[in-house]
Structures are given as C-alpha cells and as structure tokens.
Recover the amino acids of this structure.
C-alpha cells in the first residue's frame, strides 16, 4: 500500500470508530499539555543521549512559548488590543510580542508582583528563541553549554509561569 492509502485508511478508521467531538486524547491536546510533553521529551532525550542538542533546544523554546500562550488564552488576554497598543505591525502570538504580552498581562490583570529575577527569567525567552533559530535554520549546532543554559532558563521561566 502507498502512504496515501495508509493515511486514508487511518482517517476512515478514526471517523468510523470515534465520536470526533469527543476525540481521543491523541487527537486533542491543549497547549499546556503540549508544553508539558515538550518538557518530558527533552528530559527523555537528555537522559538517553547527549548528541541531540539541536532537537532539545527547539523543544525547550516551544515548551515555554506554548505555556505562555496557554496562560494568555486561558485568562482571556486581549492580544489584539495589545498589538494595537504597540502601534506596529505584528502577528498575535509571535515571538516578537509574546514576552511583552505576558508581562503586560501580569502587571495589568494579576495580583502577583514581578521582581527582577522574574523579569530576568522571562527575558531569557530570547536566548531560547535564538538557540531554536540556530538549531533549525542555521549551519551551526547548539553546544552542550547552551543546552545547559536552555534547560536552566526554561526551568526558571516555567517556575515563574506557575505563579500566574
């Protein structure tokens, strides 16, 4: 059978055997679950191998990005309004706006205070992003030292986001 035939058969099986409005977990997944899955994947990869730095760097970044996006959507953050307030053309949930959006959300709508360590942690999403870009699009590899930093920064950001 061809790949097309195999995929068609899988699709037919799913449609025939599942109520897609109550789809199984593997067909529906929240951004928070995806964020957690990316963290688990990085832990698994790092526990088994130490030669997949590029893959791990990307997963650290997406874990943080998906967690932030989940929080903003969960809390009803007005991302369009935030973009308009920037007075520049940006897409909602782009890397260029996600850090500022979560800070704006916390300062405007939440009763937690941001200290300098929290702000430094959130700002480290830029490091994670740069390593993801290097891993995915450049002729360079992410070093072991950078993977260690990615792990540290991801942990710090996720710990901070748990307060929200």
């Amino acid at each position: 059978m061809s790949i097309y035939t195999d995929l068609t058969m899988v699709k037919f099986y799913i449609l025939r055997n599942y109520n897609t409005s109550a789809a199984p977990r593997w067909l529906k997944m929240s951004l928070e679950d995806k964020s957690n899955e990316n963290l688990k994947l990085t832990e698994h990869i790092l526990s088994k191998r130490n030669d997949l730095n590029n893959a791990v760097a990307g997963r650290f970044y997406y874990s943080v990005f998906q967690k932030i996006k989940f929080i903003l959507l969960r809390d009803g953050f007005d991302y369009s309004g935030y973009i308009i307030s920037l007075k520049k053309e940006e897409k909602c949930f782009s890397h260029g706006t996600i850090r500022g959006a979560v800070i704006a959300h916390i300062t405007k709508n939440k009763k937690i205070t941001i200290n300098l360590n929290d702000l430094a942690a959130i700002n480290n999403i830029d490091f994670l992003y740069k390593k993801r870009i290097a891993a995915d699009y450049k002729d360079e590899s992410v070093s072991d030292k950078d993977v260690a930093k990615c792990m540290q920064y991801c942990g710090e950001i996720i710990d901070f986001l748990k307060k929200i």
Remarks:
- The longest helix spans residues 53-74.
- The two ends are 50 Å apart (CA to CA).
- The CA atoms of residues 24 and 75 lie 25 Å apart.
